[in-house]
Amino acid sequence: xxxxxxxxxxxxxxxxxxxxxxxxxxxxxxxxxxxxxxxxxxxxxxxxxxxxxxxxxxxxxxxxxxxxxxxxxxxxxxxxxxxxxxxxxxxxxxxxxxxxxxxxxxxxxxxxxxxxxxxxxxxxxxxxxxxxxxxxxxxxxxxxxxxxxxxxxxxxxxxxxxxxxxxxxxxxxxxxxxxxxxxxxxxxxxxxxxxxxxxxxxxxxxxxxxxxxxxxxxxxxxxxxxxxxxxxxxxxxxxxxxxxxxxxxxxxxxxxxxxxxxxxxxxxxxxxxxxxxxxxxxxxx
Amino acid sequence: xxxxxxxxxxxxxxxxxxxxxxxxxxxxxxxxxxxxxxxxxxxxxxxxxxxxxxxxxxxxxxxxxxxxxxxxxxxxxxxxxxxxxxxxxxxxxxxxxxxxxxxxxxxxxxxxxxxxxxxxxxxxxxxxxxxxxxxxxxxxxxxxxxxxxxxxxxxxxxxxxxxxxxxxxxxxxxxxxxxxxxxxxxxxxxxxxxxxxxxxxxxxxxxxxxxxxxxxxxxxxxxxxxxxxxxxxxxxxxxxxxxxxxxxxxxxxxxxxxxxxxxxxxxxxxxxxxxxxxxxxxxxxxxxxxxxxxxxxxxxxxxxxxxxx
Lengths: 285, 309
Hints:
The complex is a heterodimer. Chain A is mainly α. Helix content of chain A is 80%, strand content 0%.
């Protein structure tokens, strides 16, 4: 066996092994969460039998249900705001090559991606408290949490949308302008349909980020505005609790189903679009 | 005849498109930093922060209290926490790179039809709640947990004990080990994705050319693949390192007394001690610490955008 073939086979086996181990590492915690949510014994080391007891208790757990409802509301609004501002920011960064303050703008839009959340939370809270001292508004609560999430979400939305905007062939927009379309018409008749997929995925991304946020929410929340992650976090700090496993399983299952569905739909839309394009090319000699 | 530049009609639209997010971020991302800076130089009153500028007896008094900063350098707890944060962030970045690079590499080399599925499988944990996944590690590493039992059975705990990563045999929770495992787990997708993006764009013919010129696959890997993926390595490392320095949730749930990180210190100063000026001082110094990696990250983002244009 020549050295090259041995290296190839070894590399292929090594690669498969590394990938499989890696995916096991990634998925093991989620799988154990799901399994232990059915464990009658609250201790993970003892298997007490299969039970739906923790799910039943979940329906009576008002703290969790209220937190879930609030989280979903905030996540929905925050995703909409993030995508709106993120779209504007992405458009500005991709289409307008030169404007004063571009470096600062680009820095501000990219920084929330990496800035530690404790800093974002503390700084925004101190600003809001100073404003509140001066004008008596806003009160800490759902609005302030929404604000914090939208600022963070803008960065993620801008990254996703600008990636798609940059890959767009400029010919279509130029053709539209040649045919007499105004900039706004070019945008909403030509550009927007082409980036609609990235808008949807940016929305989903910022939705899930907002739903899951702990630190910024902890700084910006007020009395009566406890979100689901805060409830889970305060319980998790105290120790292991099977009710968290039940919530976790539900969340994981819902997310997994949605992501898989979205991937399948995306792949199908991609195949359809490729088929349409090749059909168009064939009909044009 | 007066020549005047009349701005074309599309200028208004352009100003709106740039101005709206600019104003939004300037107000709610940039301005807060200035407020933090101001409060770090203020005195804490009974309930709220005292005003900096006071007018009394016809004299305008401006009080700039910089003793907070001095206190930071004097007290070992703060300096220790900063160093610990940098240490564990660097360690996590290294672990993510070590695990993530082969992962991204073999993903990029997999069959083209398989790659979207692999990508989706990597992203799926990222979409589910990170809080829950960190909580899951609590269950896995606790006494009697699956991973804890497996590690003890394999005898890994002796190795970890020697490395100083755990305190006592069979006690994996609330140790540097559990912290690094938790943080590596959380940030792995952040490392894999930029690496995958970078590696999948590589021209494989370069490797063929290297083989033709007599290089072994190992040499070709180090001399060609790694340098070409440098952009991905830098992006992934910054995406892991910078947030890790200020991490709070994972050290809180999985860390222990030996792993006091600066995120926790800031949290305690704010919520437990109610000392807002001190918390602000901690925040300002933290931002200064990460300003260099932040600048590297920004430069990379700008360059990546230029290259695609």
